[in-house]
Each structure stands twice: as structure tokens, then as C-alpha cells.
Cation:dicarboxylase symporter family transporter
Amino acid sequence: MKGQNKLFFAIIIALILGVAIGGFVHLQYPDSAKPFSQNIKLLGTVFIRLVQMIIAPLVFTTLVVGIAKMSDIKMIGRVGSKAMLWFISASLVSLFIGLILVNWLEPGHVTKLPIQDAASADELLKSSKGFSLEDFVKHIIPKSIFEAFATNEVLQIVVFSIMFGVALANLGDEYAQPVIKLFDVIAHAILKMVGYIMWFAPLGVLGAIAAVVATNGFEIFKVYAIYLRDFFFAIAVLWLVLLLVGYMILGNRLFDLLRRIKSPLLIAFSTTSSEAVFPKLVEELERFGCNNRVVSFILPLGYSFNLDGSMMYMTFASIFIAQIYGIEMSVGQQITMLLVLMLTSKGIAGVPRASLVIIVATCSMFGIPPEGIALILPIDHFCDMARSMTNVLGNALATSAVSKWEGQLDNHGGDM
């Protein structure tokens, strides 16, 4: 754990330095803030791209090996059904928490936000147009596995990997074992790369945070203080619920799990990317004691279907925009919106700023001005930090819970 602690403290130091450097530039050299942000943001870009580079091969190899090693199709169905039960339940709970708290706290009624120029939302408005069942199907089923690899379409890679893994499991040991062994070696080699790449994380954190603070300064926290306060309170409630459920299932081992995933949580929070910690999360969950077959099967599915923080944010932000425009929605309409979000959010997993795209599409559907997304764009980065961190926690708990239910959770972790 010594290396893990060093990385954790390096990230904390980078986070503080990022805020200090960004604040200094914003206050002392405001004219240079924009070019400074563009340049220092490259540190974050380098880190994210290094991680993105290994996601597709890691998801593919670990998932294929996990399923092929199960060999028992009934086991695949059993593990998959338990995972989906968790995902659907967690998504509904997250959506309901967002819905209840935004109605209770009413941030849109008490906050006087400056009306933003809708031009800042143009890109998102274009992204949401034409969102349909056809797009949903196209996003799930790959036209070409090479295209899915090239664009890091995790959901499409998952679909292909499951089918390939099941086929391999039914091929017979004579043909399957050499392929499984090859993929297993590749997976472990990529996990070895994770260790090297994670040492770029502090630089990535410093670059991402410094860029945001240099551009927006500290004033943005004052302007949106109420919205941020209410949203982070809602996130805290969601964390409390998730941790209580986790404790009921894992007992005192929950605290060991949290110690294991503290660096992935912090990296996700700082870089606003739960995707950036996927390889590290695989490694830490296996060290925690989760069966590697279960991890390699459940975690990629979780990244497509179990985004608890994003789910809660969708209802919270959609109703907030309605409140800003003085649009009153009945309980029935809000429940309908919740169910629509539950379905449509599964269709664009892996899309950049997916939560915002879904919010725009949902607002259009319910007669709420979609341009209202421009109101929350300036602080979406800070909300995204909490969303990403919560998504990582939800997927770690889901994987650990399914491992426990399957009797595949070792009493003690260890090095791989």
C-alpha cells in the first residue's frame, strides 16, 4: 500500500497546487488566463489519452477471459442477472433521490442566476437532435468492432466481447484454452501498464484544476453557491444510501474497499472522468478480493448501465431548469420524466458529457426550454467532479456485492 499512499498524496498536492496556480493566474494575469488554460490543460489531456489508449483492449480482453473462464452459461446468466438487478435498482434510487431533493430544496426558485447566452449550449443542442430508438440501437450494436475500438465505444465493445466470450466458452478446451491464455497475458500486461500511467495522474489533476480556476476564478462558486450547495448535499445523501447498502452486504470490509479505491475516487473527482480510473479500478478490486472473472464481467457493464451520480444529476438538473423558467410540473409528469431518463440514459453511455446531452433531449420532450442548459454549463465541471466520483463508488460497490453474492469474494485481498 506504500505506493498507493504516495500516489494519493501526490494527487492531493497536485490538486492544491492546481487551485493555487489557477487562482494566481486569474487574479494577477487575467488577460493571459485563456491561453494559459489551453496550455496547462494539455497535462490533463495527456493523462486522459494515455488511459483511453488502454481502455478498449482492457475491456475486451478481461471480459472475454472472464466469460470464457466461467464456461458455465448458467453462471454467466446468473451473474449478469444479479448485476442488472443492482444496476436498475441503483439507477432508480439515484433518480428518485435527485427528484425528491430538487423539489424539496428548490434551488431554481431561490437562486437568481444570470441568463446565459444560449450560444454556449449550441453544441449540446445539436448533439441531442435526432435522439431516437434508431440511435439507441446503433449505439449498442457495433457496425464494426474495429470502429468501436477506434472510438472507445465501451458499450459496443461489451456487446461484442460477451458474444465472443460465450462462443469461446462453448468451443471446447482444445481450441479455447490457447486463446484464453493469450488474452489473459495481454490483460495482465495492460494492467501492468496501468501502474506506469497512474503516475501521470498528479500532472493530469494539476492541469485540469488549474485550467478551470484560471478561466472562471473563484467568483463562479459565489454565483452558483446555492445550486452547488444543494447538489453536493444530494450527492452526499446518495453516498450515504450507497454506503449503507454496501455495509449491509460487505460488513466491515466496506472500509477496506474504500481504502483500496481512494486514489481512483480522487482521480475521478479531479479529472471529471470515471473512464480515466477504469484500469486502476479493475486492479484494486482484484486486490480487494473480488474474483477476476466477476470483475472483468461486471465492471465494463457497470460503466454502461450503472452511473449513479450521473443518474441523480439528470433529474436534479432537469427540474432545476424547469424551476428557473417557472414551469410547474405535476408529480405524474415528474415520474414520467424519471422513467424516460431511466431508459434514454442507457443509450448514450460513453458519450462525452452524456448527462448534459440527455438533459437537453429530456427538456425538449417535456416542454422545458432546452436552452436552459446554458444556465448550468459554467459550473457543470464542478458537478461533473462529484458525478464521476459517485459513478466510481457505485461500480466498485456493485462489483463487490455481486462477488459476495456469488461466494467469490476472498476474505483477504493481496497483490496481484
In short: The two ends are 13 Å apart (CA to CA). Residues 111-117, 347-352 have pLDDT under 50 and may be disordered.
